[in-house]
């Protein structure tokens, strides 16, 4: 059953790379303006599922799927879907910080310019708002026209989030965004992520169980391509229904 709280609904989703099946009949909702964290061991299909939510897997040779991903009442895998518009509304931030080889300002202004914003004052306002939301404005406001490569790793990742936010997405997909960050940068990033859910719906993949506990509103636990359990964070971490879930979150699975 769907509800008005559901931003995305994943229904009976299966995925393959060539003949190898990597996701099996996965179904769960992504709740509006909440943080849904996908957990599970390496190779369980987490990133494949995340990339499926805005069809980035379409670019991977040998990928095929069946099932549905319902967004705005429509299956994003139906024929005729405008992928350009889909990926403006559902934006991915990659695991490793990947700023463009240009200034901090131009990184954030890149998307708005593509979408037709040319006015300098409007661009500056858009860039400032995005950097504020990404928790980076105070750190870079006096160096906007310096190279983005001058930023630390943590700042670069928040810059990539600001770049995503500048096109006013509805859903933010985060693939292990703190994987390459030190503990202080990770804490700053987590604070930004939690604060962002008032503006966007967030789906995040992480290997870090402690991080999932800190940020998640809902948790989906995948194991060997299957959804083992989905539910509110406190239920998954404090009252898991499945023995496999309990073993994984306690570190006793292996």
Question: Which key phrases capture this entry?
Answer:
254 residues; alpha/beta; Rossmann fold; six-stranded mixed β-sheet; four-stranded antiparallel β-sheet
What features would you describe in this structure?
The protein has 254 residues and is an alpha/beta fold. It has one domain (6-249): Rossmann fold. Helix content is 35%, strand content 26%. It is built from 10 helices and 10 strands. The strands form 2 sheets. The protein has a 6-stranded mixed beta sheet, with helices on both faces. Strands 2-1-4-5 form a 4-stranded antiparallel beta sheet, covered by helices on one side. α3 (104-114) runs parallel beside α6. The longest helix is centred in the middle third of the chain and has 14 residues, at 120-133. It is globular, with a radius of gyration of 18 Å. The chain starts with 5 loop residues before the first strand and ends in a 5-residue tail after the last helix.
Topology:
Layout: E1 6-17, E2 20-31, E3 35-39, H1 46-52, E4 63-71, E5 74-75, H2 83-89, E6 90-93, H3 104-114, H4 120-133, H5 137-140, H6 153-165, E7 171-175, H7 183-196, E8 201-205, H8 209-215, E9 218-223, E10 226-232, H9 233-238, H10 243-249
Parallel strand pairs: 3-8, 3-9, 6-7, 7-8
Antiparallel strand pairs: 1-2, 1-4, 4-5, 9-10
Can I get a quick summary?
The protein contains ten helices and ten strands. It is of the alpha/beta class and 254 residues long.
């Amino acid at each position: 059953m769907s509800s008005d709280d559901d931003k995305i609904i994943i229904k009976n989703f299966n995925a393959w790379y060539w003949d190898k099946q990597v996701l099996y009949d996965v179904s769960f909702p992504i709740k509006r303006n909440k943080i849904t964290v996908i957990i599970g061991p390496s190779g369980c299909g987490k990133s494949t599922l995340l990339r499926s939510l805005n069809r980035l897997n379409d670019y991977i040779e040998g990928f095929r799927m069946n099932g549905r991903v319902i967004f705005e009442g429509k299956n994003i895998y139906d024929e005729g879907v405008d992928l350009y518009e889909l990926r403006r509304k559902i934006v991915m931030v990659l695991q490793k910080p990947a700023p463009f080889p240009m200034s901090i300002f131009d990184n954030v202004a890149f998307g708005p310019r593509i979408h037709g914003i040319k006015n300098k004052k409007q661009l500056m306002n858009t860039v400032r708002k995005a950097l504020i939301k990404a928790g980076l404005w105070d750190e870079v406001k006096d160096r906007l026209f310096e190279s983005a490569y001058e930023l630390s790793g943590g700042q670069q990742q928040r810059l990539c989030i600001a770049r995503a936010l500048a096109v006013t997405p509805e859903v933010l997909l985060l693939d292990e965004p703190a994987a390459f960050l030190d503990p202080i940068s990770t804490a700053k990033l987590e604070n930004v992520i939690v604060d962002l859910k008032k503006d966007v719906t967030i789906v995040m993949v992480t290997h870090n169980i402690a991080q999932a506990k800190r940020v998640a509103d809902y948790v989906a636990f995948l194991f060997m391509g299957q959804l083992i359990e989905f539910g509110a964070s406190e239920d998954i971490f404090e009252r898991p229904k499945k023995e496999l879930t309990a073993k994984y979150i306690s570190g006793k699975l292996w």
